[in-house]
Write a structure and sequence with these properties.
six-stranded antiparallel β-sheet; 1 helix; mainly beta
Length: 89
């Protein structure tokens, strides 16, 4: 998935042809255009995933492992509903 935006509290918005995701809690500073691949679940209750990261600034050469919390996964319509439900109005 590609990093396509930033959300509150340093969360990142990811998107690919399969859908969208919001992640947070990683150890690396990511920028738009970086790629994040969800490898496997480390803790189902916490939604903690092992991820591979490749950086656009490095022309996606090489990858780095990190752990991130997946806060949302789904389609664009579900993302709008999620953001509406968790945003203070």
């Amino acid at each position: 998935m590609n990093v396509v935006g930033y959300l509150h509290h340093a969360d990142l918005l990811l998107e690919d042809e399969q859908g969208m995701a919001i992640i947070g809690g990683g150890h690396y500073v990511l920028s738009k255009g970086d790629k994040v691949s969800l490898k496997r679940v480390l803790d189902e209750n916490k939604k903690l995933y092992l991820v591979d990261i490749s950086f656009a600034s490095n022309n996606h050469e090489g990858s780095y492992e990190d752990e991130c919390i997946v806060k949302f996964e789904g389609c664009r319509d579900a993302l709008h509903q999620y953001l509406h439900s968790c945003t203070v109005h």
